[in-house]
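Kindly go through one protein, given below as sequence and tokens. The question is how this chain folds according to its tokens.

***
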Amino acid sequence: MVMSEPIHVDYYSDVLCVWAWIAQPRLDELKTQWGEQVLVRHRFVDIFGDSHSKIPNQWGAEDGFEKFHQHVVNSAAPFEHTDISSDIWTRVRPRSSGQAHVVLKAAQLVAGENLAQRFALTLRRAFFVEGRDVAEMELLLQLAEACGVERTALMQSLGDGSAMAAFSSDLRVASELGVRGSPTWVLNDGRQLLYGNVGYRILSSNIEELLRNPAEEASWC
């Protein structure tokens, strides 16, 4: 039996994470297969909040960015539709994903989830394919406007702190749920967490099971 209410999937990611870029076709397929039966809500985690400390510390102070670029290329190579610019992490090195996440939360607040999802995809494509620095505020605002987000409303949300509060809420809830990294799919009100390079069949089968069984059956005590 199909539930009258849509299944909520909270999708936690970092806009600079290659595995979230690799997972993008799975997001697209969810919409194609399930339509309005599944509502994906974009949430954000802090993986590259301070990339200029993280990458040299983990990959080497002298050539860490170059090594990390090659890691990104190698990770994406087995997958279709995951082009990687030769500039990312070599010539183009965003200092933080945090600013993009706050602007994305502002877009959610003022323009709704569907448009914010389109904006998130635009940002990922701008970075991974076009090699643009999506930590730069002016570029973020330009790309948001190109997706149909009104700049004045966006700036109001950024200026009054509501976008930052929404991002802070994402981080807090992610910690409470035990989200380990990017991407993580959270289903069934936090009872199911699918982390990392999760195949679409696994994701789809979990959603299908939730659609068949009422939420009340999730726990008997």
User: Anything to note?
Assistant: The first helix runs from residue 18 to 22. The first strand starts at residue 7 and ends at 13. The CA atoms of residues 81 and 118 lie 17 Å apart.
